[in-house]
Specification:
The complex is a heterodimer of chains A (195) and B (199).
Chain A lengths: L9 H9 L6 E4 L9 E5 L7 E6 H5 L12 E11 L5 H12 L6 E4 L5 E9 L7 H26 L5 H10 L14 H4 L5
Antiparallel strand pairs in A: 1-2, 2-3, 3-4, 4-6, 5-6
Chain B lengths: L9 H11 L4 E4 L9 E5 L8 E6 H7 L10 E7 L9 H15 L3 E5 L4 E9 L7 H27 L4 H10 L26
Antiparallel strand pairs in B: 1-2, 2-3, 3-4, 4-6, 5-6
The chains are: A alpha+beta (195), B alpha+beta (199).
């Protein structure tokens, strides 16, 4: 009888590929407190940050409900090491919203309930593999935006800067929030009225 | 099912998948005015159409002469919402966008404060220019669901009739669960690759 060949978990495979990407990583295996494997991946620049990479299905599975998920979904989560003050949370949410418009992967959010600020990208992976190139591209995107803005996110989240000032400082750094044009025609024009 | 890049163009392949997933669509070919092929998909609800534009970012870069379209296999799904905002309501709308985005999972609902345009945008990072039909159907269904719930509330806040708090109460009454994200413990930065980082 053939012996079963042990296979590495997809996160172990990913860890092996991180060396080629010049990124540090460490696999934290599931335990009693955290019942799913998590791969911690470092940023290239000198942030004291690590991205948590795991499969959302592994988080939900112990609770016995995967019905909301059509396929395997990998999550890349970067929680920033500070939270917004309650009185400043609305402005932090607004600033994160603006910064998210610079991202071509994932979003930057500030939780209204507790002020936690985080970057998150969900990546559907039907065959439960997360290509290292895709992860690298997502992290590069997050890194590029945070490099220019993390100090401002921190300032806005404690009320040391207003939203408008933070946007102005970003512009001085050469970062402009892209314009999104409307497709919708005002009613007067739609009805053939004067322009 | 996945698209077959050898047989059809990537967006045509996605159009076939949308047909199977029963999403109405129109494929617009690139021409003198339109730089790249765009697939329009309706993600509206209750008789109000909301066209989502699907395109590959790589096609845009290639059209600008920057790179091979296959080197950037990111599918962008963009739906611009027809909402009216004022200077006074921008902040509340932006907050509500943040709350809806946390619940959305894939992508974001954003408010461009400069142009006062509210839009949903999702980027799907693919290994190549093909996508699984169930994945796409699931992503579009989720977008449709959050828009069905969120657009009426965004409209009320945008018009100034409701403050942010009332909009959230209205969402909760419809079964919306306010997202929560746990904070990380404060650890020494040298511990960022240790299990304590997550504990």
């Amino acid at each position: 009888m053939d012996e079963a060949v042990p296979t590495q978990s997809p996160l172990s495979d990913l860890l092996d590929q991180l060396e080629g990407l010049s990124r540090q990583g460490r696999l934290i295996e599931a335990d009693d407190l955290r019942p799913f494997d998590t791969l911690l991946v470092g940023f290239e620049s000198d942030f004291d940050l690590a991205a948590e990479v795991y499969f959302v299905n592994d988080v939900i599975e112990p609770f016995g409900d995967e019905s909301d998920l059509e396929c395997v979904v990998a999550q890349v989560l970067v929680r920033l090491p500070f939270v917004a003050e309650p009185r400043d949370t609305p402005e932090a949410v607004r600033f994160c919203n603006a910064l998210s418009q610079l991202l071509t992967a994932g979003v930057l959010c500030c939780n209204e309930r507790n002020g936690v600020i985080y970057f998150r990208a969900l990546l559907p992976m039907p065959d439960r593999t997360l290509p290292a190139g895709v992860l690298d591209s997502v992290l590069n995107t997050a890194e590029a935006v945070l490099e220019k803005s993390m100090d401002l996110v921190r300032s806005v989240s404690v009320g040391a800067e207003t939203f408008d000032n933070a946007i102005a400082i970003l512009a001085e750094r050469g970062v402009r929030i892209p314009r999104m044009e409307s497709l919708h025609v005002p009613p007067a024009n739609a009805a053939g009225g004067d322009n | 099912m996945t698209t077959n890049p050898a047989a059809v163009s990537p967006l045509q392949g996605i159009a076939f998948l949308l047909e199977e997933e029963e999403f109405p669509f129109t494929l617009l070919r690139a021409d003198e005015k339109r730089l790249v092929d765009i697939l329009l998909v309706d993600v509206g609800v209750e008789g109000e159409p909301v066209p989502a534009e699907l395109l590959f970012l790589g096609d845009l870069f290639a059209a600008a002469g920057e790179e091979d379209p296959n080197s950037h296999p990111v599918l962008q799904i963009l739906a611009r919402l027809n909402l009216e905002l004022s200077d006074e309501t921008l902040s509340g709308v932006s907050r509500l966008c943040g709350t809806l985005t946390e619940a959305l999972g894939y992508g974001a609902i954003s408010c461009s404060e400069e142009t006062r345009v509210v839009f949903l945008r999702i980027f799907l990072h693919l290994s190549d220019r093909t996508v699984d039909g169930h994945v796409l159907g699931s992503v579009l269904s989720q977008a449709k669901m959050i828009l069905a719930m969120g657009v009426p509330a965004l409209r009320e806040v945008g018009s100034g009739r409701w403050p942010y708090e009332k909009a959230v109460q209205s969402l909760i009454a419809k079964g919306f669960e306010l997202p929560v994200m746990e904070s990380l413990p404060v650890v020494d930065s040298s511990k960022r690759f240790q299990p304590e980082y997550l504990s």
